[in-house]
Amino acid sequence: MYTLDLTIFDKWTPNLAWILGYLWADGSISSTPPKRCCFATVSSDVELLLHVKRILSADQPLWIDNKHYMIHLRLSSPGLLSILQSKYKIEPRKSFKNLPFPCVPKRYLGHFLRGYFDGDGSAHIATNGYLQIDLVGQFRFIKGLQLAVCNRLNIKRNRIYRRKECNCSQFSWYSRADIEKLCDFMYAKQNIPCLRRKRNKIETYLELKKGA
Length: 212
Hints:
With 212 residues, the chain is α+β, with helices and mostly antiparallel strands. The protein contains 7 helices and 8 strands; from the N terminus they run αββαββααββαββαα.
């Protein structure tokens, strides 16, 4: 029997906000037996699953899918599933239901955004040479996420467009001033759970631009 500390779900904290954001992006709740909560990532980003294991004091082993270069963390806990569905409104097959953005306290929104960005976000240099941050997801969710973040930081709400190839929607941030605010918002401290390669890409770009 594996152990799992569910007390983190008792109240909002930075770590809980990060886990919930990451779960909305790259997590799932199975709808058929065996019912469980699963996190998945590509092998190179295994640090995300190690963060989850550490925060939840989970001793479940990671499951490696060598064929698809993926790593999974599968948490079989009826108590966890009940909490996620009843308290935090995360449903089975959420990616197919176009669920709305959940209620996230303002003081924890940056941590939630970082978790979602770690899973379903990207940062890349566009053809114009400027950094662009993209977020993808179901339309109602990312529309609500965009609205909450843009209102909180007073940054521009850019167009949301549909991506037919993945049956999802996407929006971007590309203003340097907006990205500076987002960086400070998501990475307010050094020792926080995050995907380091994404953080490093944003911080390195902004540091280079300071000297330009």
